[in-house]
Design brief:
CATH class of the largest domain: Alpha Beta
Order of helices and strands: HHEHEEEEEHEEEEEEHEHEEEH
Largest sheet: 4 strands, mixed
Distance between the termini: 130 Å
Structural class: alpha+beta
Helix content: 25-40%
Strand content: 25-35%
Number of domains: 4
CATH topology of the largest domain: Trypsin Inhibitor V, Chain A
Radius of gyration: 43 Å
Mean pLDDT: 82
CATH architecture of the largest domain: 2-Layer Sandwich
Number of helices: 7
Strand order of the largest sheet: 7-11-8-9
Low-confidence stretches: 283-294
Shape: elongated
Length: about 290
């Protein structure tokens, strides 16, 4: 009985709350409050859109000026006047262009942008870009060409000469001069290659290059269509400087008028800076003859 009375009281309270709420919804105050709330949110949305429009300069734009050919100082003046920003993102060496001048831009000239927009520029480099000459000797002609192109260089003239190997690169040159390994070259430079075409039936006398420095020996052998073969440095050669100063104390095949070998053959050389091994009489060698041919 007590439980029933308690539940009845709760039910009566809920009934009166519902009736009161229903009466309030139908009242004028409730309608006024709802209208005011809707107006408040409408005004809030309007103000937000207005502020957003002002912040983003909605509807206001300007044309990007044509900056190509202008120097950096001129670009700064033009962009400042147009209330724009600029940023250099790359430089490329272009022959016959004014160093430091604009080569290209993004956005392009005439594009519509907002105030403060950044224009990205590529300018002409003051110095040409240089790349390292890759190792291209003792590889096939096709492989050498691929390595040159990957390094940003070009294949120049190809000169074929007798050799024990066909289509193998024997030497690399620029304007007639031999190129040391890891030489820095301007990007796009054409490198000339000396390539083997196989042995010849003709024969030549093996020059005696004992006492020669390596470069002189190479020129002497090249003059008679022979190639430098294996290089063997003895224990006296320990540094790069030593290898530059080293002289040839032994060769195979040996030099002499009676030693004839096929054009394109290789001559192996032994080098040292040990004066005892270099005690060779070369007074009868016509060294100047070989040098004058180059």
């Amino acid at each position: 009985m007590r439980y029933f009375i308690k539940n009845s009281v709760i039910f009566v309270k809920i009934f009166f709350i519902v009736m009161s709420l229903k009466s309030f919804i139908k009242s004028r105050n409730f309608i006024i409050n709802i209208v005011l709330l809707i107006l408040f949110f409408a005004v809030l949305v309007y103000i937000t859109l207005l502020l957003l429009k002002v912040y983003t300069n909605h509807g206001e734009s300007r044309s990007v000026p044509d900056l190509q050919g202008f120097s950096k100082s001129e670009v700064e003046m033009i962009t400042h006047h147009q209330e724009l920003q600029y940023k250099v993102i790359d430089s490329t060496f272009v022959r016959n262009s004014v160093p430091g001048s604009v080569l290209s831009q993004q956005p392009s000239a005439g594009a519509k942008v907002k105030e403060g927009r950044t224009v990205y520029l590529t300018i002409s480099a003051v110095q040409p870009e240089k790349v390292v000459l890759p190792g291209i000797v003792d590889v096939s002609l096709r492989e050498a060409q691929s390595r040159l192109e990957n390094a940003g260089l070009r294949l120049g003239q190809v000169e074929y000469r007798p050799s024990e190997f066909i289509n193998l690169v024997l030497d690399k040159r620029l304007n007639g001069y031999r190129l040391p390994n890891d030489t820095l070259l301007i990007k796009g430079t054409a490198v000339d290659l000396i390539v083997g075409k196989g042995l010849s039936n003709e024969k030549t006398i093996v020059p005696d290059v004992r006492g020669f420095y390596l470069n002189d020996a190479n020129r002497a052998l090249y003059a008679v269509s022979l190639n430098v073969g294996a290089l063997v440095y003895d224990n006296s050669v320990r540094t790069v400087e030593d290898s530059i100063q080293a002289q040839i104390w032994k060769q195979m095949p040996e030099g002499g008028e009676n030693n004839l070998i096929e054009l394109g053959s290789s001559v192996d050389l032994w080098l040292t800076i040990d004066n005892e091994r270099l005690d060779v009489n070369i007074d009868d060698l016509d060294v100047d003859l070989f040098e004058n041919e180059f």
